[in-house]
Design goal:
Layout: H1 2-22, E1 27-33, H2 47-60, E2 64-69, H3 73-88, E3 95-107, E4 110-113, H4 123-129, H5 134-143, E5 147-156, E6 168-169, E7 182-186, H6 204-215, H7 221-235, E8 243-246, E9 287-288, E10 300-302, E11 310-313, E12 316-320, E13 337-341, E14 344-347, H8 353-361, H9 388-402, E15 406-407, H10 411-419, H11 436-439, E16 475-477, H12 490-493, E17 505-509, E18 525-529, E19 537-539, E20 542-543
Parallel strand pairs: 1-2, 1-3, 3-5, 5-7, 9-10, 16-19
Antiparallel strand pairs: 3-4, 3-6, 7-8, 10-11, 11-14, 12-13, 14-20, 15-20, 16-17, 17-18
Helix pairs in contact: 2-6, 3-5, 6-7
Length: 546
């Protein structure tokens, strides 16, 4: 009997231990809404409603929420302390979430979250009365957990005395690169202000975010915030464009509801009118294919959880190159040839730094394990400073990992994919250069909030095949050896990469973030030495259909 008792006791201990091991990571949230400012003229309408809405959504996602409404400076600092202590005691797998709605300001690049008991009339006074956001970042860094999210609907302009900003400016200051393990989202661009929304119970940004938390919680965070960004931009007719910066290096694809991401096959898109840059369909992640799964035409898929999203394109014909009458045409863009294209798959996005890092972690990409990001950020941005040979290494690693044949696209395949069924137009959106600000990251002078650098994958609209960034962002390596003109035998070779000509150089296609719009036409091709690494060049991966 004693033996049985001891066995039962051990079983209970083991069961308890198993239960602990299976317990989900703790999720803690601090939600602050400041609206009832005591200084005349400062009161806001939406923040308490906004904070209440977000708190409700977070509870539904398993968060322990500490709601703090109309907080004084002392109450805000006490809430920060509680939040930091909870995070620190919850372990490395804990998730921290901070949301703030109310007045916000910046002083010399320091973001200040403004309590309701503020009396300041100048920025010099405000910096002593408003807690800096850095307090939160310090607490998160001290806690050491892998996922932290900061949401700031705090870009409403602070009504200080005219002419007495003393170094402050409207809106909040930008983090050019988010701290490690923190994603920071702003209701609008750095240095800009977003209005309160007195005609509605919630701000446009928070209402859109709450919808995403309810409907799209299975999507990776960056994907979800990209969608929020697009919807707010469209809802405000371009007046408000949210921004986010992700430093989630240990959990770059974290989502609120793992395994719940929606999966679909994109339907063919109408060619006219092309969707606006901020109202395109959602960026839907592909399904991981099971062994033996057959691919239909125009199907979206991934061969593994960390593999790039691919689009299977149907066979067809391409009149490669540009007609002699096309504005901006160069001599190497012809003579035009009609070429048959067999069915193949191509990356929906340019290969990103995240994709590259998976290669390095998997033992590949050894020749260039840490390409420079030029200080612009990594994660979902296209990988840059990679040579043609580096790209070949990535393709070889992906082939070995999946058992499929991955490679660089040929020039014919690339142009067939980039044109997106718009077979003769200069750009995938048509012929008009003036529309480029809506559709591509180029050197054009655009008031779109994008700096002169790469943009995150999918920041601009897809073409009619469902592919992103085929014009601008980064120029893309192709597999072919360079030839100054398309040879007469091209139609016989079809879509296969050409191995004759100058194999010390390879064509890059699509133009880059610093290219004039004319150099992002679908026919443009530029020869680049195979070993060159540049901040303007990346690549897109292709694969055989079976």
């Amino acid at each position: 009997m004693r033996w049985i008792a001891r066995v039962l006791a051990v079983a209970c201990v083991l069961a308890a231990g198993m239960g602990q091991a299976q317990a989900p990571p703790r999720r803690v949230a601090l939600v602050i809404g400041n609206a009832a400012y005591t200084t005349p003229g400062w009161a806001l309408v939406n923040p308490v409603n906004d904070a209440t809405l977000i708190a409700d959504r977070l509870r539904g996602l398993g968060f322990e929420v500490d709601p703090v409404m109309n907080a004084s400076k002392a109450q805000m600092e006490a809430a920060f302390a509680r939040f930091g202590a909870k995070l620190k005691s919850s372990g490395a797998d804990a998730v921290g979430f901070f949301y703030y709605a109310g007045h916000g300001a910046q002083k010399d690049g320091v973001n200040l979250l403004v309590p309701v008991d503020v009396t300041a009339r100048t920025m010099d006074q405000l910096r002593y009365q408003a807690p800096p956001m850095q307090f939160l970042l310090d607490d998160m860094a001290d806690a050491g957990n892998a996922v932290n999210i900061i949401i700031l609907d705090a870009c409403r302009n602070v009504p200080l005395l005219d002419g007495q900003r003393s170094g402050g400016s409207g809106g909040l200051a930008e983090f050019t690169q988010a701290p490690p393990d923190v994603l920071i989202a702003y209701a609008t661009r750095a240095g800009y202000t977003a209005p309160d929304n007195p005609g509605e119970s919630n701000s446009v940004f928070t209402r859109t975010l709450a919808e995403a938390l309810q409907n799209d919680a299975g999507d990776p965070l960056e994907l979800m915030f990209s969608d929020v960004q697009a919807k707010v931009f469209a809802a405000t007719a371009g007046a408000q464009r949210p921004e986010y910066r992700s430093g989630l290096v240990r959990a770059p694809r974290w989502s609120f509801r793992p395994g719940a991401a929606r999966v679909s096959q994109p339907a063919p898109l109408d060619l006219e009118p092309i969707p606006d840059a901020r109202t395109t369909p959602r960026l839907l992640r592909g399904t991981v294919l099971a062994a033996g799964h057959s691919l239909g035409e125009f199907a979206q898929f991934r061969d593994c959880a960390d593999c790039p999203d691919m689009i299977m394109l149907p066979s067809g014909q391409l009149n490669i190159g540009a007609p002699a009458t096309e504005a901006g045409r160069q001599a190497n863009e012809g003579p035009q040839r009609v070429v048959g294209v067999d069915r193949f798959a191509i990356g929906r996005f340019e290969v990103t730094f995240y994709d590259w890092d998976q290669c390095v972690k998997g033992g590949g990409c050894r020749s260039n394990p840490q390409p420079s990001d030029n200080g612009w950020g990594r994660g979902s941005r296209p990988v840059i400073n990679v040579s043609w040979s580096d790209a070949q290494e990535y393709a070889a690693w992906l082939s070995q990992k999946t058992g499929k044949t991955y490679r660089l696209p040929s020039e014919v395949e690339w142009e067939y994919a980039a044109r997106g069924r718009v077979t003769q137009a200069r750009f995938f959106w048509g012929a008009d250069e003036a529309r480029s600000c809506r559709y591509a990251n180029t050197a054009a002078a655009c008031d779109d909030g994008f700096a002169a650098q790469t943009a995150g994958a999918g920041s601009f609209p897809m073409n009619a095949w469902g592919l992103y960034d085929v014009a601008g962002n980064v120029a893309e390596w192709t597999a072919d050896c360079y030839e100054p003109q398309y040879p007469a035998t091209l139609a016989d070779v079809g879509a296969e990469a050409r191995t004759g000509g100058d194999c010390a150089r390879h064509p890059v296609r699509g133009g880059a973030w610093n290219s004039p719009v004319v150099d992002t036409r679908s026919a443009v091709r530029q020869p680049v030495p195979a070993g060159q690494r540049a901040a303007t060049i990346g690549f897109r991966i292709a694969r055989a259909p079976y």
